[in-house]
Amino acid sequence: MNPNIPSVDQLKEIALPAPVSYAPQTWGWWALLGVLVVAVLLVGARRYWQWQRDRYRREALVRLAGLQTSDDQLKALRELPELLKRVALSMPSPWNAKPVGALGGEDWQAFLVLHSAQPLPADFSQQLAQLAYAPDSTLLAMPSDQREHLFNTCKRWVECHHVAA
User: Fold this and answer.
1) How many CB atoms lie within 10 A of CB 136?
2) What is the C-alpha to C-alpha distance for residues 95 and 99, in angstroms, rounded to an integer?
3) Which of 11, 32, 125, 148 has the most neighbouring CB atoms within 10 Å?
4) CA distances for 1 relative to 8, 109, 110, angstroms
5) Which residues of the chain have pLDDT under 50?
6) Are 150 and 83 contacting, i.e. CB atoms less than 8 angstroms apart?
7) What is the pTM of this model?
């Protein structure tokens, strides 16, 4: 065997450098990490609180979708004003707000418009009163496009109404 030809036996292990820690080396980085962790926790807590606060809204939208696809349109139309009133009662409100349960007529219309993000029909509260108190024959004679418009208006109001924080 020729001594000038390298062999596998002559290979030696390469010395590796000392390991480097990924932990911050100065207190400033630890402080920044602490601030970031606190900020993430605060944002998460705020989002969770908002999600919990809007639970009534999600439940109302599920019920509204069920009413809209219901086979018994008369019952669905009768329940629509009650659903909006329940949503209004469930809204968080400031301490000095008027009791929502007693509102009716122009006061109810003013409340709906005040808390609406989009314009509402001028006679929206009258339409809701008609749904609640009109004879069955009047509601059954209502055109389907008018029913759809009422359901869509109620859905928009439930989705986008303003809540006093």
Assistant:
1) 10
2) 10
3) 125
4) 14, 104, 104
5) none
6) no
7) 0.73
Q: What is the pLDDT of residue 107?
A: 87
Place of tokens 């929502």: 100
Of 74, 99, 76, residue with least CA distance to 89: 99
3-state helix, strand, coil in the chain (%, to 5): 65, 0, 35
Domain ranges of the chain: 55-160
Q: How far apart are CA 6 and CA 116, in angstroms?
A: 85
Q: Which helix (H) or strand (E) is 154 found in, with range?
A: helix 144-160
CA distance linking residue 60 with residue 68, whole number of Å = 12
3 state SS of 126: helix
DSSP state of 99: P
Q: What is the pLDDT of residues 22-57, one digit of tens each?
A: 888 889 999 999 999 999 999 999 999 999 988 999
